[in-house]
Design brief:
The complex is a heterodimer of chains A (about 300) and B (about 325). By secondary structure, chain A is an all-alpha fold. Chain A has two domains: about 1-55; about 80-295, MetI-like fold. Chain A has helices at about 1-5, 15-55, 75-80, 85-115, 125-135, 140-150, 160-165, 170-180, 185-195, 200-210, 210-230, 230-235, 245-255, 260-280, 285-295. The longest helix of chain A has about 40 residues, at about 15-55. Chain A is flat, with a radius of gyration of 27 Å. The termini of chain A are far apart. Chain B is an all-alpha fold. Chain B has helices spanning about 5-40, 60-65, 70-100, 105-120, 120-130, 140-145, 160-170, 175-185, 190-195, 200-230, 235-245, 265-275, 280-305, and strands at about 45, 55. In chain B, a hairpin with a 7-residue loop joins strand 1 (about 45) and strand 2. The longest helix of chain B is centred in the N-terminal third of the chain and has 40 residues, at about 5-40. The radius of gyration of chain B is 25 Å and the shape is flat. Chain B starts with a helix and ends in a 9-residue tail after the last helix. The relative contact order of chain B is 0.13. Chains A and B meet through helix 2, helix 4, helix 5, helix 6 and helix 8 of A and helix 1, helix 3, helix 4, helix 5 and helix 6 of B. Chain B: InterPro entries: ABC_transporter_permease, MetI-like, MetI-like_sf.
């Protein structure tokens, strides 16, 4: 092999001492980084693992500090579904999050489009107000809103006070979608107009197909936000267990099963599961959406 | 083009704008402007939901600031969360963001794992952490005990309930990780190469190349973190209720902030005053305090990032 070295005197692959240290350093760096990565992964993952393992323990074992079930009680999940109310809460959550998301998307698209692509007086002011609405804590306006829904419309004890307002745009969705629509070049819109499309047809034919990732992102965010909402159902539906959502009912589940951590954890897993499943199917749109909220201002 | 057609055209375009904006215009009037003004009005009245509101001047304001026993504990807790929780989340989020940009094998799997807790529904995650950190038999104290480390009472000890909430908040760091990751990947490679040629150490490269480049994003994370901390509601409320063992069904009077008001936050005061004590006037005062704080930090955020208002055409 020494002849090869002679033929190619500048061979940089030759294992000189300096190279060996560099390579060893790179290997050590790789090991260090990935060990840290595994440690961090354990921190993020272990809570899920412990919750899941506890959900499969027997009633008695769930009260001990054991980590692994002695017998695997899959029946716990059946028991959770048989708990009165649980299926109703599931249905209510789907209605609230599903219908709420559809209404949000339908009502937010035209507003976001106008804010991104129309020139009109008061546009910057409107945008400023959208951002203010987005940053407004729900609790600030809850007293007049509660009185409005209970005294004027008599709709408390249902989820409608939470669903109906979503037909009038959601500030966060409008803002996020507007940011996305800004990235669509105006040339496409102008071309459509030259072809004789009105604004509405331009929106439907040209803009919506290009805005699919943005729409997916706001739909996902809104679905998750509504699925997770606790304050809304607490205010409007707390008097009527038949209108509770999973997020709200879960807490009372713990109240009803004081000592059954296993059943409470099974219910917890069942509340987490749909969100995590949706995430696995739509990971890309989701991460894109998170980036849109902040970095691309 | 005659002035007449121009005027028609302009009117048409104004109508078109109004049509596209109409969902939000109604939403703004009914679900923002009206309730805000109404809240301001209620703050100067005595009202329990029955009869009519009676004007009572600044009585509610005086009551909330001077005599309402939950106001200052909630302000102190919120300040604690703003300082400690936001700091921990930003530092940890930046650390995880740095780590993920260095990981070369299995990046996708690591990123998903790091991101996942952010998605855990707050009530479920809080319930889970009350169990994990349960003083007697929870897995965390079981492991700490085996290692001979101290085993705090977490959610049942006023000194440890906010640190426990901070651990929960740090666990859900996925949003910040993604934002920091994007910012870190945007730092020009040449700057690192130049720094390396100058013999800069890893820390120096971080201090003098990475940090200056990502400082706007750090600022963004801090200010949005502060806004979130002021709105922090579900986790402390659920943690307090579940850890106390008293899950109030509707109408049941539960003193908020278990243990010892240590998990009481500003938004909880609106609920406590309005929906547990039926003192809508004082609840309106608490709501307005929250409003002023939230808007002050929003203004700061927008001044820092004028980009939010960039021209759209």
């Amino acid at each position: 092999m020494s002849t090869t070295t002679l033929e190619r005197p500048l061979n940089t692959d030759a294992p000189t001492p300096a190279h060996r240290t560099a390579r060893r350093k790179a290997a050590l760096h790789w090991i260090g980084v990935h060990s840290l990565g595994i440690a961090a992964a354990l921190f993020f993952l272990l809570p899920f693992v412990f919750l899941f393992l506890t959900s499969l323990m027997s009633d008695a074992q769930a009260l001990t500090s054991d980590l692994v079930p002695r017998t695997w009680e899959w029946g716990n999940y059946v028991k959770v579904f048989e708990t009165p109310g649980f299926l109703t809460w599931w249905k209510n959550s789907l209605l609230y999050a599903g219908l709420g998301t559809v209404l949000t998307v339908l009502s937010s698209i035209p507003v976001a489009y106008a804010l991104a692509k129309f020139r009109f007086r008061g546009r910057n002011l409107s945008l400023l107000l959208v951002i203010s609405m987005m940053m407004l804590p729900q609790q600030v306006i809850i007293i007049p809103m509660y009185l409005f829904w209970s005294k004027q419309l008599d709709l408390t004890g249902t989820l409608w006070p939470l669903i109906i307002p979503l037909a009038f745009g959601d500030a966060f969705s409008i803002f996020l979608l507007r940011q996305f629509l800004l990235t669509i070049p105006n040339e496409y819109l102008d071309a459509a107009k030259v072809d004789g499309c009105g604004e509405f047809r331009t929106l439907i034919r040209i803009v919506l197909p290009m805005a699919k990732p943005g729409i997916a992102a706001i739909a996902l965010f809104q679905f998750f936000a509504l699925w997770n909402d606790y304050f809304g159902p607490q205010i409007y539906a707390s008097d009527n267990p038949a209108a509770w959502t999973l997020s709200y009912g879960l807490e009372s589940f713990k109240g009803a099963h004081q000592t059954n951590w296993n059943l409470t954890m099974a219910a917890t897993v069942l509340v987490m599961a749909p969100v995590i499943l949706v995430f696995f199917f739509a990971q890309k749109a989701f991460v894109e959406g998170v980036t849109l909220t902040g970095v691309k201002g | 083009m005659t002035t007449n057609t121009l005027r028609t055209k302009r009117r048409k375009s104004a109508l078109r704008t109004a049509a596209f904006m109409s969902p939000w215009l109604i939403g703004f009037a009914v679900f923002f402007a009206y309730p805000l003004i109404s809240t301001l009005y209620f703050s100067f009245t005595k009202y329990d939901g029955f009869g009519a509101p009676v004007f009572n001047g600044f009585d509610n304001w005086k009551y909330v600031f001077e005599n309402y026993p939950n106001f200052w504990p909630a302000m102190r807790n919120t300040l604690w969360l703003v300082v400690v929780m936001v700091f921990c989340r930003v530092v940890f989020g930046l650390g995880i963001g740095l780590l993920i940009t260095k990981i070369k094998t299995g990046t996708g799997i690591f990123r998903t794992l790091f991101y996942l807790p952010y998605l855990a529904p707050p009530v479920a995650a809080t319930l889970g952490f009350v169990f994990l950190l349960n003083p007697g038999t929870g897995p965390v104290n079981a492991i700490l005990g085996d290692l001979g480390l101290p085993t705090p009472d977490w959610f049942t000890d006023p000194a440890f309930s906010k640190p426990a909430l901070t651990i929960l908040a740090v666990w859900g760091i996925g949003d910040l990780m993604v934002i920091f990751m994007a910012a870190l990947l945007d730092v020009p490679k040449e700057q690192y190469e130049a720094a390396e040629l100058d013999g800069a150490s890893a820390w120096q490269r971080f201090r003098f190349v990475t940090l200056p480049n990502i400082s706007p994003i750090v600022m963004f994370a801090v200010v949005t973190g502060v806004i979130q901390a002021m709105q922090y509601y579900t986790q402390p409320l659920v943690a307090g209720k579940v850890a106390s063992g008293i899950i109030g069904n509707s109408g049941q009077q539960v003193e908020p902030g278990f243990p010892d008001k240590s998990t009481l936050t500003l938004p909880q005061l609106v609920y406590n005053l309005g929906f547990q004590r039926f003192d809508y006037g004082s609840a309106a005062v608490a709501a307005l305090v929250l409003f002023v704080l939230a808007m002050a930090f929003t203004a700061l955020l927008m001044r820092r990032r004028g980009g939010l208002l960039q021209a759209g055409d």
